[in-house]
Amino acid sequence: MYDRSGYNSGVLLSEMVKRNGIRIIGVGITRSVDEAELKAISSSPQEIDRNYFMVPYFDQLTNIVEKLATEVCSEDVSYINTRKPLTC
What we know:
By secondary structure, the chain is an alpha+beta fold. The longest helix has 13 residues, at 7-19. It is 33% helix and 9% strand.
């Protein structure tokens, strides 16, 4: 979760995370979200409706659930050691 406490700090933190092999999918909610910033924070390829999503209102999150689930579940997560089976 990121709350725009500073553009540079958010982008720098996301770069550190991405260098460690973690994929970041960004979700911007409200019209005040800076799309360029959200795009910079997300992983490559930095394409809308792939690694970052935008909706103008919270009640519209349901509009992106299917696309978001498709992106999240397309990752190979079999390497994760967990006690519960992973399902998407």
